[in-house]
Amino acid sequence: MIRERVDTGHSRYEILIGTGLLGQTGQLLLELSVNRSSRHLIVTDEQVRAAGHLTPLLASLQAAGYEAELFVIPAGEASKRLELAERAFEFAYEAGLDRRSVVLALGGGVVGDFAGFLAATYMRGIPFVQLPTTLLAHDSAVGGKVAVNLSSAKNIIGAFHQPLAVIYDIDALSTLPLREMRSGYAEAIKHGIIRDAELFAWIEARTEQILANDPQVMAELLARSCRIKAEVVSADEREHGVRAILNFGHTIGHAVESLAGYGRLRHGEAIAIGMICAAELSVKMGLCTPDAAEAIASVVKAAGLPTQIPRDLDADELLSSIKRDKKATGGTLTFVLMRAIGKVEIVKDVPEKLVRDVIEDRRES
Amino acid sequence: MIRERVDTGHSRYEILIGTGLLGQTGQLLLELSVNRSSRHLIVTDEQVRAAGHLTPLLASLQAAGYEAELFVIPAGEASKRLELAERAFEFAYEAGLDRRSVVLALGGGVVGDFAGFLAATYMRGIPFVQLPTTLLAHDSAVGGKVAVNLSSAKNIIGAFHQPLAVIYDIDALSTLPLREMRSGYAEAIKHGIIRDAELFAWIEARTEQILANDPQVMAELLARSCRIKAEVVSADEREHGVRAILNFGHTIGHAVESLAGYGRLRHGEAIAIGMICAAELSVKMGLCTPDAAEAIASVVKAAGLPTQIPRDLDADELLSSIKRDKKATGGTLTFVLMRAIGKVEIVKDVPEKLVRDVIEDRRES
Ligand SMILES: NC(=O)c1ccc[n+]([C@@H]2O[C@H](COP(=O)([O-])OP(=O)(O)OC[C@H]3O[C@@H](n4cnc5c(N)ncnc54)[C@H](O)[C@@H]3O)[C@@H](O)[C@H]2O)c1
Ligand SMILES: NC(=O)c1ccc[n+]([C@@H]2O[C@H](COP(=O)([O-])OP(=O)(O)OC[C@H]3O[C@@H](n4cnc5c(N)ncnc54)[C@H](O)[C@@H]3O)[C@@H](O)[C@H]2O)c1
Ligand SMILES: [Zn+2]
Ligand SMILES: [Zn+2]
């Protein structure tokens, strides 16, 4: 088992990465002094349950003497809604959850964000534990951002609420569809680009093993990728400064994701396209050399991720979606741009015209 | 203008108390460096708007160069609902509120709790300013507890989110119905009981002037009462310890309030009854003398507040409601009890039998 520490100043927790961890969760909760007289709440989605990952978790909780209620949501982004959260709150309250209860989020980023939002606001905040089952969740489970969506925009209603622990059982990834694996792979590439050229090269050389879920390689990938996320979050828990570099590829990526219509592109697919665009924007701004941007496009392509903006997405609509993105404060266009692989910076006042050019170049012809 | 400071360690803000302050809000926001390029959101309720308090606020914001959107909710507890919050989120998002926007809560505890919840969770937290218009709001506007209700229980969904400032215009109280004045008066009595015998005596001697809204007396009352609240909150922002003393009178009070059916008793009316019960429980536990309990009953009575539990409320149902109150962790009965006026403490394992006796003694016969 690999352990990585996160320390934001306000809160401290560990990320545990290894095999067979779901079957040890009860024991781990005992070590975290989670009490056995309160009831707890497992949140998961239908697909994760069907894949069989609930079974070892339930067994281990029971063996350790924990009583847990179960709230299962439909798989997919549409579950990140206040209406469903209200049903979960009612359920938790009827089940007698109190302020010492813990929420256990078993699933990918959707379950983690949704369950984390419940924990952040139930009785003004109770602890929660992330039990990620997707590769992408190495990103979403670390850092304490939790949220649900508005029908018109993603992640508008949320909080910063750090987990009590992240327990990452690599075995769970064995049932993850390849497309989801690729989606998570994109965020790992991002972590290399923003802070660690060596990690980027390491990933580049191991695309196949990662997508084939080689346990040794996967453990190292998750540990290294989580470490970068943890470092950035520890330096800036509430996204007042450096944390914004985590949004590399996300400004155009989010616009592509939302305009395509949720469910069509996976988050990581949209981010893959967004990273290529951000790199090309960096070149146009004279910040980095074209070969750095090409290296990104090539690793994205090798992973089987999309490299182009779907043809039916309109440049004007993408631009106006970017402008109302929540990171655009006061109307100016701010981007995370790249100096070189491993080094990015926040650039304000990027000319709209250049953004449009990049988008047009990258649209499928 | 009187200024009181709150400093929780995580956040620092001022409570400003005086006349004509709504008309100075724009200026005060400028002093707080609230930016003028973002749009802001005023939340108020229909009755507060009808009473005319929006007018000076709007004028002063405009004079200071602020653009504010307006979201008006129906008056009353039923507005503290997630469904209405979702509509407010959609409205705020469509209006273009961003992370530098500020929510202005103009109203009593309902508006404060609701608008504070919006601010706590919109884009993972934006600042908000409390503009209290009820006497009770001296309690609800200080301390950062914000929440909405489940249909089955109050304040279950919420956060700790400290305001940027509390701007308390005493003039607003001139339109407040007497019954609401009394309701707020109960919380002021509570602040005397838990920390300040001298304040209790001062209040006792000024019941009439307070209920008649004498500006001088009111300013001093609000300042002293807010100071106590601020001290307790500063010592324990998240209610891990001493903050619980603020719940004096609230354990039985909440049960009475909810079983009576929301809307029938005002919050302060239920708390007035709850305080008398808590005092009598303290006597039965041998913690204080009967005359201290009698002094409380007498000041409550002099204010025209109820002193007895309505006859139709059943002792068994009250007891089971108390047991599922969120302060009951792990099933034991915990109460804030009184040693003397000005001195309370948290007592665990209060025998259910004594609680039942007190309830039965206090029911209308
Ligand atoms: N909070 C953050 O910091 C953060 C960061 C990035 C992304 N996110 C959020 O994360 C979400 C995307 O996360 P995701 O890609 O993990 O999505 P997801 O949770 O929807 O999982 C993808 C799909 O895989 C299924 N699945 C999950 N684990 C499985 C397994 N082990 N075996 C078989 N199927 C499995 C799920 O049921 C789902 O259908 C988005 O909502 C995004 O906004 C949040
Ligand atoms: N957050 C906290 O720490 C805290 C503490 C105590 C109470 N509360 C909450 O506060 C709420 C009760 O607060 P409240 O008693 O202020 O209730 P309220 O906000 O409902 O106000 C009472 C009534 O008076 C009206 N009103 C308000 N100001 C007026 C004015 N100046 N002129 C004329 N009418 C006016 C309102 O429209 C309402 O009908 C409850 O929801 C309770 O849970 C919160
Ligand atoms: Zn992402
Ligand atoms: Zn109260």
Strand line-up in the sheet with most strands of chain A: 1-2-9-6-5-3-4
The name of the CATH architecture of the largest domain in chain A is Up-down Bundle
Total domain modules of chain A: 2
Q: Enter the CATH topology name of the largest domain in chain A.
A: Dehydroquinate synthase-like, alpha domain
User: Quaternary state, please?
Assistant: homodimer
Number of strands of chain A: 11
Q: Please tell me how large the radius of gyration of chain A is.
A: 20 Å
What does this structure look like?
Two copies of one chain form a homodimer. Chain A is an alpha/beta fold and 365 residues long. Chain A has two domains: 2-175, Rossmann fold (3-Layer(aba) Sandwich), CATH 3.40.50; 178-362, Dehydroquinate synthase-like, alpha domain. Chain A is built from 15 helices and eleven strands. In chain A, helix 7 packs across helix 10 (215-235) and helix 12 (267-284) runs antiparallel to helix 13. The model of chain A has no long low-confidence stretch (mean pLDDT 95). At the A-B interface, helix 4 and strand 8 of A face helix 4, strand 7 and strand 8 of B. The structure holds nicotinamide-adenine-dinucleotide (2 copies) and zinc ion (ZN) (2 copies). One nicotinamide-adenine-dinucleotide binds at residues 45, 47-48, 51, 53, 75-77, 80, 107-111, 113, 133-134, 136-137, 139-140, 143, 145, 154-155, 172-173, 175-176, 180, 183, 267 of chain B. Chains A, B: Catalyzes the conversion of 3-deoxy-D-arabino-heptulosonate 7-phosphate (DAHP) to dehydroquinate (DHQ). Chains A, B: GO terms for molecular function: 3-dehydroquinate synthase activity. Chains A, B: Keywords: Amino-acid biosynthesis, Aromatic amino acid biosynthesis, Cobalt, Cytoplasm, Lyase, Metal-binding, NAD, Nucleotide-binding, Zinc.
